[in-house]
Fold this protein.
Amino acid sequence: MKRIIAAFLILFSTQLHAETMKLAVTTSFHNSGLSDVLLPVIQDEIGIEVQLIVVGTGQALRLGRAGDVDAILVHSKAAEETFVEDGYGTHRREIMYNDFVLIGPETDPAQIAEAATASGALQKIEAIQSTFVSRGDDSGTHKKETSLWSSAGFDAASFGAWYKAVGSGMGASLNTAAGIDAYILSDRASWLNFGNKGGLAVLFSGDPVLFNQYAYLPVDPERHPHVNATAARQLEAWLTSPTAKELINTYQIDGEGLFTFNATQ
């Protein structure tokens, strides 16, 4: 009888915690380390095992369009709004933000630390054609970078060999920049959690154009009936809860906060 009861309890517990969902997230979010804090609490509190698909924003949106994930958490507002307008997402819900920073060699050959704006910093880099690493992967960070180059008066597609598009995630791109003493645009969270900084440092930040908003978009079950829309709604409710707010706002590396919660109820 005891064995039967034990077997029943194991089966019941397995069923209770068997709910899973697939969430496409950016490499920058994953590299920040915040997911390691949030996911265990999510499973404990609402019984959902969130399986992360770690890709760039562009690929995350493509996975959502194909119905290969239940929701996405990305950071490229215009692309997100198009995703919803085209009928692939039910809505867009802002969750948290941080900012982008321009990183480069501590010697700062282009002297971007003296720039007044992000555009001015990029103009200094282009003027001496100092080596610049681009993610080049259609991620939210890459989209932001190309937008910044455009605002500075340049088309990144026309740049020469000094501009190195590596087609990699944030961590791998930072590794490349560290290895060749190059400039690079990164989200602050990934930079703070990056261990191989070498001779690189944050040289420019603070321009309002470097604001970096993360948003949650459930895939529309009317477009893809097989998605786990119930779990996606439950996860959204948790991500906008006081518990999530506390965990997001208090997550730090070396005493520095990485994200600020700004979800509305």
